[in-house]
Amino acid sequence: MTSGPHVTIDLSALRHNLTVIRAQAPASQVMAIIKANGYGHGMLRVARALAEADMLGVARVGEAAALRAEGDMRDIVVLEGAQTLDELLLAAELDLSLVVHHASQLDLLGDIELARPLACWLKLDTGMHRLGFSPEDFDSAWRRLDAASAARAAPGLMTHFCCADNPDSMLTHHQIRQFRESTDGLPGPRSLANSGGIFGWPDAHADIVRPGIALYGVSPFEGETGATRGLRPVMTLKAPLIAIDQRRAGDAIGYGGSWHCPEDMLVGVIGIGYGDGYPRHLPNGAPVRLNGVEVPLIGRVSMDMISVDLRDAPHAAVGDEAILWGEGLPVERVAEQAGSIAYELMCGVTSRVAARVSEDEED
Ligand SMILES: Cc1ncc(COP(=O)(O)O)c(C=O)c1O
User: Fold this and answer.
1) DSSP conformational letter for 194
2) pLDDT tens for residues 202-218?
3) Among 322, 354, 337, 24, which residue's Cα sits nearest to residue 196?
4) Angle, in degrees to the nearest 10, between helices 103-110 and 135-147
5) ∠ CA 258-260-262, rounded to 5°
6) Which residue minimizes the CA distance to atom 13 of ligand 1?
7) What is the whole-number distance in angstroms between the Cα of residue 307 and the centre of ligand 1?
8) Residues 6+ apart with CB under 8 A from 133
9) In sequence order, which ranges of 127-246 are alpha helices (DSSP H)?
C-alpha cells in the first residue's frame, strides 16, 4: 500500500444514511442519486452498497450503461434523458427509464417504434428554469408523450427544487403548489424531493424521493453539517505529513510567500494538493485535522503539498495522517472556507487519490 493521499469510503455510513432518509420519508420509495461517480465516492461501489435503494438515478445514459454492465438490473432513471437517437435506442436496449424534459426528446420518441416501449418521466419546470416543460406547455407535452408508442403509458411526473438548501425559501412552497396544479388528475408516480426536500418539506415527499448529497452524509442545508440530521460522513480524505521543520519568525511559506511565520515555529508539510482535488482557493486558516487537533493551513495550496501551522501539535511526526475532510472534520466546513459546496469538493477528488473501502457495520 502506498503512503500517498487516499479517501476512505465508509459503506456502513452510506447504508446508515439511507436508513435515516427512509425514516424521514417512510411512505416514499427511494431513488438513490449516484451520478458523477457517486458524487466522487465511486458509482459502482455505491450502487452495490445501496442494494436496499428502490431505484437509481444518474445524469447520463453512459452512467446507466456502466451500471447495467455490472449487472445492476434495478430501475435506473436517466435524469437528463436521451439526447440522440443512438442514446434512445441504447436506453431501450438496456431497459432504462428516461426523463423527458424537452420537445426535442418528444420528437425523438415520436419518430420511432420500439419492440418494448420505454419507461419515461415527464419533467415539469416549476421554477428552476433549467430543464423541464413550463406549466403552460406541460399538458400538451404529456399528451404527446402519451400518444408516442415508443413510451410506456402513465409516465412518472417530476420536478426539481432550486432553493431547497434554504429552509426559509418561499420558492419551494411555490414549486410544490405549481407541481400539484399542473399534474392534477394525471396518472403516474410523482417525484419532487431532493435531499433538501426530504428533510425540509414533508409535503413534497410524494411517491419517490431522490436523495443525493444526504446519502453521502452531508446536510442539504446551508450553515449546518450532516451530523445535525443524524447523517454520517461517507468520504474521509487523508494524507500523510511528509516533512516537519522549525521555521524562524518572518519566514515566508510556499509559492508567492504570502504567509509569514509570526514567531519561531514548527511548520508541517502534508502530501496533498490541488492535483489531488484539494481546493487551491482555500485560504490561510482553513482547518486540517491532525492527531485530534486542528492545524491551520498556511500559505498557498501547491499541486502536491500544503503547509500547516503545527504550533498546536508539537508532537506531530512525519508519517502521521492528516484528515482534510470527513470523519472529525465536516466537509461542509472546508467547503465553506473554499467558497464552494461539499458537492464540488467530493466530486473533485482526482483519480490519483487511492480509495480504501471500509465495510464495518456499526448500526
Ligand atoms: C433531478 C435531480 N434530482 C435529485 C438530485 C439530488 O440532489 P441532492 O444531491 O441535493 O439531494 C439531483 C442532483 O443534482 C438532481 O439533479
Assistant:
1) -
2) 999 999 999 999 999 99
3) 24
4) 10
5) 155
6) 212
7) 35
8) 101, 102, 122, 123, 124, 125, 141
9) 135-147, 170-183, 195-200
For a ligand 1 pocket test, name from 78, 99, 159, 160 the mutation site with the most ligand atoms within 8 angstroms of its C-beta.
Answer: 160
- Residue 363 is predicted with a pLDDT of 44
Nearest atom, ligand 1, residue 160 CA: 1
Strand partners, 326: 329
Ligand 1 pocket (Cβ < 6 Å) reads: 33, 79, 160, 194-196, 210-214, 220
Taking the CA of residue 59 as reference, the ligand 1 atom at the shortest distance is 16
What 3-state DSSP class applies to 252?
strand
- CA 281/CA 301 separation, integer angstroms: 7
Site to probe by mutation for ligand 1, drawn from 194, 208, 209 as the one with most ligand atoms within 8 Å of Cβ, is 194
Instruction: Write down all domains in the chain, each with its CATH number in brackets.
Output: 11-219 (3.20.20.10), 235-329 (2.40.37.10)
Q: Please report where in the chains the cell 423541464 appears, as a residue.
A: 132
Q: Do the beta carbons of residue 141 and residue 122 sit within 8 Å?
A: yes
Q: What share of the chain is helix, strand, coil (3-state, %, to 5)?
A: 30, 25, 45
127-173: pLDDT as tens digits: 999 999 999 999 999 999 999 999 999 999 999 999 999 989 999 99
Rounded CA separation 37/206 (Å): 27
* pTM of the full structure: 0.97
| CA-closest residue to ligand 1 atom 9 | 212
CA 131 to ligand 1: nearest atom: 1
User: Looking at residue 175, what is its pLDDT?
Assistant: 98
